[in-house]
Each structure stands twice: as C-alpha cells, then as structure tokens.
Specification:
This protein has 203 residues and is mostly helical. Helix content is 43%, strand content 10%. The longest helix has 17 residues, at 105-121.
Length: 203
C-alpha cells in the first residue's frame, strides 16, 4: 500500500513556502520492466520523486539541499522551455529540468530515465525515444554492473539501436542464468526490430 503525506517546504532559490506530497512507503506487486521501472503501486508514485517550486520553477528531490544553480539559470529560456522539446506532460518537464540542473552523471541518467517513463505514460513516443538516447550518453559513466549492462541493452533496443545491440551483446555471458535469458530475449527482439516495453515476467 502506498502512503503519502503533505509537508511544507521552502524553495532555496526564491524562498517561497509551499506544500509538497512526500512518499512515506509503497509496495510492488509483479515484476519490473526490463529497464527496472517498478511495477504497481510504486510505478504510480513518480509525482513524489521530484518536486517543483510553483513560483520560480526550481526542481529538486530535496529542497533542503544547497542548489547547484543560481536563479539566473532557471530564468533562462532554455530551462523554461525544456530546450523546446514540447513534452506532453508536466511530469516529463519536471524530470527533464532536474537533468538540466544536475552536474552529477548518475543523477542526470536517472532524471532522463524517469523522464522517459513519464513520456511513456503519455504516449509521447518522440520524446521517449530522445530521452533513452540521452540516457545512453551517460550510462557508461555509471558503476559497471550486470544490471546496468542489461538496462543499457533495453535502452538500445527501445531507442532503435537494433544492430548495435546485437553486435555488442551476442558475445556477452553472465553468471546468473536469468541474466543470460534476458540478454537472449533482448537480442531476439532486436533482430525483429521490436522496440516495445517488456517486463522481466515476459522472459
């Protein structure tokens, strides 16, 4: 069961006080997507992961942390327009602005991935594709792990890098059998030019 509660917070940029919804707890039933997006009920809590100041537009996961940018940055047209990407949902804009603000490669990656998920929910295929391509620019900066290697494969397939995926993953093997099955599944779907969303339970 998901539990949320409202709290008052203060924007560190403009000092505006406003209410946000804080996630206290949630649960997961089922298997995650191959890019690790959680199943319900956690799947529907994205609006609690990052918040936006309604006055100045600054976004952050934690408004108690010192901002990485100045007010002048969030007043730029590029920030306000999200680089003119015309997202279909405000939630997508929030995650994209978090990506723009951050100077940490890991946070940039996850902000873009979460933005892609928000785009998926609105059938915003153009920007979903773009966000996954942008994720690929940062994933190699993250800590190398089998999980991340398989997330990369899913990002490649879902952003139509079918031939590159087959070439890169055809010779890979993992100690965990389920990881090898996921890898084979990704290659099979890539050979069919299938960029659809699949969960681990589909393997």
């Amino acid at each position: 069961m998901t539990q949320i509660f409202p709290i008052l917070t203060t924007c560190p940029i403009c000092e505006n006080e406003f209410e946000i919804i804080q996630l206290a707890s949630t649960n997961q039933m089922g298997s995650p997507d191959l890019d690790l997006r959680p199943p319900e009920m956690a799947r529907s809590t994205m609006d609690t992961w990052t918040h936006e100041c309604p006055k100045c537009g600054y976004v952050a996961s934690d408004f108690n942390q010192t901002p990485e940018i100045t007010r002048e940055f969030i007043e730029k047209d590029e920030y306000k327009s999200c680089d003119d990407l015309n997202f279909k949902s405000h939630q997508s804009e929030i995650f994209y602005r978090q990506y723009m603000i951050s100077d940490d490669n890991e946070e940039k990656f996850y902000s873009l991935l979460h933005c892609a998920w928000a785009c998926d929910d609105e059938n915003d295929e153009k920007n979903s594709l773009l966000m996954r391509n942008k994720c690929l620019d940062y994933i190699d900066f993250l800590k190398v792990s089998d999980d991340m290697m398989l997330v990369k494969a899913d990002l490649m397939r879902r952003s139509n890098h079918f031939d590159e995926l087959v070439k890169e993953y055809s010779t890979k093997s993992f100690e965990n059998d389920i990881y090898n099955r996921i890898c084979d599944f990704q290659i099979e779907k890539a050979l069919k030019k299938d960029n659809g969303c699949y969960a681990i339970e589909d393997i």
